[in-house]
Amino acid sequence: MATTEVLIIGGGVMGSSIAYHLARQGRDVLVVERAEVATKPAASWASAGGVRRQGRHPAEAALAREALARWPALERELDAMTLFRQQGNLLVAENDTEAEQLVTFVREQQAMGFSDVRWLDRGEVRALVPGTGAQVTAGSYSPADGQADPAWTTRAFATAAQRHGATYWTQTECHALLAERGRVVGARTTRGDVQAQTAELAAGAWSDALASTVGLRLPIQMHALQMIRSTSAPQMLRPVVSAVARALSLKQLHDGAFLLGGGWPGDVTPDRRGYILKSQSIEGNWAAACAILPAVGQQRVERAWCGLEAMSADGIPFIGFAPEIDNLVLAVGFTGHGFALAPAVCRAVADLLAGQAVPDLEGLSPSRMSTVRFE
Question: Do 200 and 109 belong together in one domain?
Fold first, then answer.
C-alpha cells in the first residue's frame, strides 16, 4: 500500500494549486488525477479563464482580493506561462433602470474592499470599449481584473508542485475514499490503495460521488457549461465584458479570437464523463455577444464545447474540513467561477492543514452543508 501525508484527489486548478503550496512547505503530497492534468471535459480545461473580483459573493471577497494581488506575479512565481492579462472587467447596463442598479452595485463592490471599482457613463463605456451596442447606457468597471488561460495555469501549478516534490498519479481513477471509525484514512484507486494522514477532495464535478463513499452528501450538482470560440479578429476588446440582464462573458484572446461564455447549458451524458452541446445555447450565447459588441457578428463560430462543473446549491464553494468525518478537507462546488480564486484558496487550505485559523474561509465552511439544499 502506498502511503502519503496528504492525498489530493483531483489534479485540476484547485488540486494542483493546493499541491504546489503544500509541497513548497516540504509536505509529502500525492495527487491522484483520473485523466491528464487539465484535459477534456474537466472545468480546468474548459473554463473561461476570467480573473475577477466584482460580482463576488461577500463570503469570497477576501479570497478574491488576495488572489488578484498574486496573479500579476504568478508566472514568475511558478516559472511558467499563465497568459494572465490585467485589462479589467466591465459589467454593462442596457437601459436606465439597469444603470441605476449599477450605481448600487458599485457601492456594494467598494464596501467589500474593491475600492477601484467605478461607475461609467455611456461615453466612458464607449471610450473603454469602442463599438458597443447603441443600447448600452452605463457600466461598472473593475480595472484590476483580467483573464488568464485555465489549462496553462493549471499545468503551471502542477509542474511547480512536482518540482517541489509532489507526486502525481495521472490516468488513475479514484473509486472510493477509505474510512475507519469515522475518519478518512486513504483511498482506493486503479493503482491500488493509498494510505494518507489527510485527504483533500478537489475532484470538481465528480466530488459528490466520491464523498458518498464515506456517507457524505455534498449539495453540488454536475452541470455542462458551454464555451464558444470565434474566428480571429483584429484586437479591439481589452476588458472582459458581461451584461446585467444577459447570460454573457465576452473576452478577446491574445490571438484575436473572441471567447464567449456566461453559463449557457449543454447536457451531461448519462455516464457523467462527457457532454452534448445544445444548438439553442450556441445561438443564444452568440446573439447575446453580438448585441453587446456587434463586431462579434462579423466573425463565425470556430468551435464550441462544454466543461463539467460542480454547481453548489447556494452558489459558493465549500472549503474546509468536512463535517461528521475526520481527516477530510473539501475544496468543491466552485460553481463556474473558482479559477480566479485558486492562488488564494491554495494558501488558505495549506494554512488550514497547518492548524492555523483561517478567517477568510469562515463564510465558505462545509459546516453549512446541513442547511443548504437545491430547490
Answer: no
